[in-house]
Structures are given as structure tokens and as C-alpha cells.
Specification:
single chain, alpha/beta, 5-stranded parallel beta sheet, 4-stranded mixed beta sheet, 9 strands, 37% helix, disordered N terminus
Length: 231
């Protein structure tokens, strides 16, 4: 049997022009990739754009990846890694995103959304553990949510919190169901269906545990706002 050698330099076809084309760079989804593939992809994107972001990098492999890349920073909770230059500093009047999570168990998904937005240079207001089981907790943080340009709401179980917030604010609300919950939650399907059937009109819903997708939806909204307000 002829042995086929792996060519590590031809495993991926990256999109370094995405930043110029869409206003945000390609992000490396690390799950399922080898350490070599992750390292080379991040390095190539950082060379092209000045910095790079990787998502869903487990802690077991993060040490080897970070050791191979200068200026790498890994966050274990959100499972994200950044390489290269720091993100641009937002202007004092830049529109902010509120990233709200219902419970502490939802923090990894909320953290992924927040880390992605911060990588893109957006101000983020992190609001944790204000779910409907103790809805009075929301009141103390409501002004931070009400004055945000976009709100991302992360919740598991029955996924009720986005409906509550969606009925109280006028800005876009992006709901993220998580796979947190007991048996009949069906690994987040119950929360997903609850959010899709929300009576709070105009709610946007992304896939289960997709904090990254919610952040990119917010990025598109913010970019449209910033483009519309430019002289």
C-alpha cells in the first residue's frame, strides 16, 4: 500500500479578503481541526489582517497552540483564542451591545459572543445570571440593556428570557438557545423552539449554543448603523 504524506500547507483555503469585503475577518473554527491546522490558519489570517480569532478551542489543545503563536491570548471560559494586534479601541460614543445570560451555566456561550464582539472592537456590556427564575435581578441592570444598540440574550431551559427582554426594548434582540437543561430540554431544542415561537415580535434567533453567530449578526447590525450615520 502506498503511503500518502500529509501536506499541512494545503489543508485550508482561507479568505483573507473577507475583512475588506464584509467588514469582518474570517474566524477559525477550531473544533475538529488539528493543532497544526489551527496554528497555521491563525498565523496566516493574522499576517493578512493584523490579528486573528479562533473559536471553540478546547483547553487541552490551547497550550500547544498558544505556545506556537506570539501574542496569543486564550480564554478558557469562552474557548476563544486571539493572535496578533489588540482590537481597535471603540470611540466613546460607539454603540454598545448588551450580552445577557439567564444563568451561570450559560456563561460559556455568552462569553463566546462577548469575546467575538470585543475582538471586532465593539463595546460590550456583560450582564450575567438574570434569568426568569429570579426576574427581579433583571431590574437592576435594565438601563444597561435598554440603552444598548443591540442585545444578545443567551438562555437554556425553556428559553424564556429573550421573550421578556424582547417585550421591553425597542432595539434589535438576538436570542441564543443553549443546550443547558434537564432531560426534556432535548439538548437545547426546547429553548430553540420556545424562542422561535416567541410572542415578542421581531426577535432574531440563532442556532443552539451559537454565541459566535449571534455576535456576527450583531456586527452586521452595528455596521449598518455606523454606515448610516457617517456624513
Amino acid at each position: 500500500m502506498r503511503r500518502v504524506s500529509a501536506d499541512h500547507h494545503h489543508h485550508s483555503t482561507l479568505d483573507p479578503d473577507r475583512l475588506a469585503r464584509q467588514g469582518f475577518p474570517e474566524v477559525v473554527f477550531c473544533e475538529g481541526k488539528t493543532e497544526v491546522q489551527i496554528i497555521e490558519n491563525l498565523a496566516q489570517l493574522a499576517r493578512a489582517n493584523g490579528r486573528a480569532l479562533g473559536s471553540r478551542l478546547d483547553a487541552k489543545r490551547a497550550g500547544a497552540v498558544a505556545a506556537a503563536l506570539p501574542e496569543a491570548s486564550y480564554d478558557a471560559l469562552s474557548r476563544t483564542i486571539t493572535v496578533g494586534d489588540p482590537p481597535p479601541q471603540p470611540a466613546p460614543d460607539a454603540p454598545a451591545v448588551a450580552v445577557v445570560c439567564a444563568g451561570t451555566s450559560d456563561l460559556p456561550v455568552a462569553g463566546e459572543a462577548a469575546a467575538t464582539l470585543e475582538f471586532l472592537g465593539h463595546p460590550v456590556r456583560r450582564i450575567h445570571d438574570v434569568g426568569v427564575a429570579g426576574i427581579h435581578r433583571l431590574d437592576a441592570r435594565f438601563d444597561e440593556i435598554r440603552t444598548a444598540a443591540v442585545t444578545i440574550v443567551v438562555a437554556g431551559m425553556e428559553g424564556a428570557l429573550p421573550s421578556v427582554i424582547g417585550g421591553l426594548v425597542g432595539a434589535p434582540v438576538i436570542a441564543v438557545p443553549t443546550s443547558v437543561g434537564y432531560g426534556a430540554s432535548f439538548h437545547g431544542l426546547a429553548a430553540l423552539l420556545g424562542m422561535l415561537n416567541s410572542c415578542a415580535a421581531g426577535l432574531t434567533v440563532v442556532n443552539i449554543d451559537n454565541g459566535f453567530g449571534a455576535a456576527m449578526a450583531a456586527q452586521r447590525i452595528l455596521r449598518s448603523i455606523q454606515t448610516a450615520t457617517k456624513p
